[in-house]
Amino acid sequence: MTDLTPLTPLGGASPRVDTLGSVTITEVTDRALASVATRKGMDANQGFEALGFAGAPAVCTMAEASGSRAWWMGPDQYMVDAAFDQSGTWAAKVKDAMGDTASVTDQSEGFCRFDLTGDGCVDLLQRLCGLDSETMQPGSAQRTQLHHMGCVVIRSEAGWSVLGAHSSAGSLHHALLEVAVGLQ
Fold first, then answer.
1. What is the mean pLDDT of the chain?
2. Exposure check for the chain: N or C terminus, fewer CB within 10 A?
3. Which ranges constitute the DSSP H helices of the chain?
4. pTM flag (> 0.85)
5. Distance, CA of 116 to CA of 65 (rounded, Å)
6. Residue 170 is part of which domain span?
7. Is residue 89 part of a domain?
């Protein structure tokens, strides 16, 4: 049997970390993702409560509970993450919690994520997207175009997360690096 080696979205054997001036960009590969689409006429709040959240996240917000994060993606659409485990059971756990109220799909390999920390994050995001990153408070999550790519920008107490399509990981990383270099 062939030995397969998992690669990060950027093609490395381990997540990449770049520090440029006051910004650190970290490739995140240890999170499992599941999308939740509430079915017409149904309420997914009980499902989110079963996962440890207070309920479904409100418009443009992110919630944290029990090591997981859930954020609003659109009307009756959410994304939920948790620590990645090799068994790949996160989406099944979310589906069990949601029951018949929502359709759940494993999105773990569909997205890339870069965490941003440091004093220059607000300036970096202001140069790359149309969000008013200066007024975004921890617990905010918004969809936006970042350098012509559809992304989600999340603000937490720990810093910022930018999620984009896995297939655009290299382009998204390049855009973040180029602007970070310009901030120095």
1. 94
2. N
3. 45-50, 90-98, 121-128, 169-183
4. yes
5. 21
6. 17-29+110-183
7. yes
Does one domain contain both 90 and 75? yes
Using DSSP bridges, classify how beta strands 62-65 and 31-38 pair: parallel, antiparallel or unpaired: unpaired
Q: Are residues 67 and 158 in the same domain?
A: no
Greatest distance between any 2 Cα atoms in the chain? 53
Rg of the chain (C-alpha set): 17
* 72 and 38 part of one domain: yes
CATH of the domain at 166: 3.30.1360.120
Q: What is the pLDDT of residues 62-115, one digit of tens each?
A: 999 989 999 999 999 999 999 987 667 899 999 999 999 999 999 999 999 999
Give the single-character DSSP code of 98.
Answer: H
d(CA 111, CA 182): 26
Alpha carbons 176 and 46: distance in angstroms, whole number: 38
5, part of any domain: no
pLDDT in tens, 124-152: 999 999 999 999 999 999 999 998 999 99
